[in-house]
Amino acid sequence: MPRKTPDQKKRAQKLLSELYQHYPNPHCALNFTSPFELLVATILSAQCTDVRVNIVTEDLFRMWPEPKDIAEAPIQEIEEAIRTTGFYRNKAKSIKESAKKIVEEFGGDVPQTMDELLSLRGAARKTANVVLGNAFGINEGVVVDTHVKRLANRFGLTRHQDPVKIERDLMALFPKEEWTNLSHLLIAHGRAVCKARFAENPDHPVCNTYGINCICNK
How many CB atoms lie within 10 A of CB 65? Predict the structure, then answer.
């Protein structure tokens, strides 16, 4: 893990507290009632909005609620059910093969370790972190999506563009018990205020105080 100074960690803690004031209920935006549903929803969320995924999964989980159901479903039917999420052929293969492996190798239960989750098709580290943190309450790492990547750089929490290096910087700065909520807080701020592009400066206190590389302050 990268070394961080006490001042850097103190600043990170202040930023975290400020984000909690503005977003007191950080949570996963994907709808799910089981670890498997969250795994599937997260795979579908690649290059797709959470709103669209939630619409699609409502019917998807009604038709195939358990891993064995999707494992046995015809691939063409899965493709049709998730078509509107984009890249539906690859996603359908990932969902079906992951479900089959969960049934055959993990007794029908989504595994609860990083290495085992990474063995599932379509589950990279970001997906594994989402499932571990939100379905099992295990803070193994920090989810780095486009919002987290953008804000981590704007707030001076990292100088990297590579998600793995960004994650390591964030893990070194923030307490482990906050890693899951940290991503939710940054995503909430990135969606509501500190967007990739905006016509007018949002003039938000978080950006004004911590946005050392933030275009809000330029």
Answer: 14
**HEC letters along 37-89:** HHHHHHHHCCCCCHHHHHHHHHHHHHHCCCHHHHHHCCHHHHHHHHHHHCCHH
For tokens 């990170």, what's the residue?
12
At residue 168, what is the residue type?
R
Element spanning 176, H or E: none
What is the C-alpha end-to-end distance of the chain, expressed in Å?
32
Query: Is pLDDT at 215 greater than 80 in this prediction?
Result: no
- pLDDT tens per residue, range 25-59: 999 999 999 999 999 999 999 999 999 999 999 99
156: left (phi over 0), alpha (psi -120 to 50) or beta: left
Residues with catalytic annotation?
126, 145
Q: Around Cβ 176, how many Cβ atoms within 10 Å?
A: 11
Dist CA 128 CA 120 (whole Å): 10
Using alpha carbons only, give the angle 94, 30, 21 rounded to the nearest 5 degrees: 140
Is residue 211 within 8 Å of 154, Cβ to Cβ? yes
